[in-house]
Amino acid sequence: MKLMNKEFNEFVRRSTPLINDHFAELMEKVEKHQPQLARMMAYSFNAGGKRVRPLILLAILEVLGEPINPDVLTVAVALEAVHTYSLIHDDLPAMDNDDLRRGRPTSHKQFGEAEAILTGDALLTIAFQWLAATGFTAEVKATVIGDLAQAAGPEGMIAGQLQDIEGNHQRYTIEQLKKLHELKTGQMLIFPAKAALHIAKCETTVATAILRFVQNFGLAFQIHDDIIDVTESSVELGKTAGKDQALNKNTYVNLLGLDSAKERLSTVLNACEEALIPLVERGYEVSLLRGFLAYLK
């Protein structure tokens, strides 16, 4: 991840091990009873992802002055577990049929197709088991569980994934593409913001600004992903480069052209900056949130 400043650098440096170590703690029971399954789950979870989604959760809570305790880390790990499951299934031959993820063989290449499906299933289901065991109030716990299920399910990521597949046979408009990515990518980036706001219980104006920031960040994140698919190598990406363009998939680059996609990214990043203004006006230090934007520049 490109780092914007020393504060954000330090935040990533100290927060990422917290997420990784907490995953190891939560997995101890699985390792004891199902060591092979635990090994397959850990292979994909620990494959070197940027941890963008859980880091958003932790960053927002830090901005709001909330402590990062084991329950918060459980939400972070559960979110990353659901994201990892989606990548495992996304790489399968019936989906994107990718051999490389984060610079390593994909799960089905490493362990087998059936094993990869079960590994993804295990990560998805155990995420909700972990959330149910947190010490949050019943209201916060139920809301967080419901929000994650909605973000990852048929009203969110799964719906977007289906639209992505259906788009292989038709050309979308930019608005249709934007809606697709709001579901496929955006909902799982908005979830950590919603979770942080449920935990912190901040005022409405602040909550609205944070949600607006993350909504725009989700769109910028996808446009950036479409751009680097054609501008970076497989080594730099950690996955097969140029695949979306080769398949003529619905992407911002394929619909707008590379230069126009870059202009659209710049516009959305400006909207992210504008969303932070109400937080600055209320005295919040937002350097951590701005640090995420550096990744997309």
Automatic annotation (TrEMBL):
Reactions catalysed: isopentenyl diphosphate + (2E)-geranyl diphosphate = (2E,6E)-farnesyl diphosphate + diphosphate
GO cellular component: cytoplasm
Gene Ontology biological process terms from the UniProt entry: terpenoid biosynthetic process
GO molecular function terms attached to this record: (2E,6E)-farnesyl diphosphate synthase activity; metal ion binding
Gene3D superfamilies named among the record's database cross-references: Farnesyl Diphosphate Synthase (1.10.600.10)
Domain of life: Bacteria
Documented EC number(s): 2.5.1.10
The protein's required cofactors: Mg(2+)
PROSITE patterns: POLYPRENYL_SYNTHASE_1, POLYPRENYL_SYNTHASE_2
Keywords, alphabetical: Isoprene biosynthesis, Magnesium, Metal-binding, Transferase
SUPFAM superfamilies: Terpenoid synthases
Keyword tRNA-binding: no
Stated family: Belongs to the FPP/GGPP synthase family.
Protein's name according to its UniProt entry: Farnesyl diphosphate synthase
UniProt source species: Pediococcus acidilactici DSM 20284
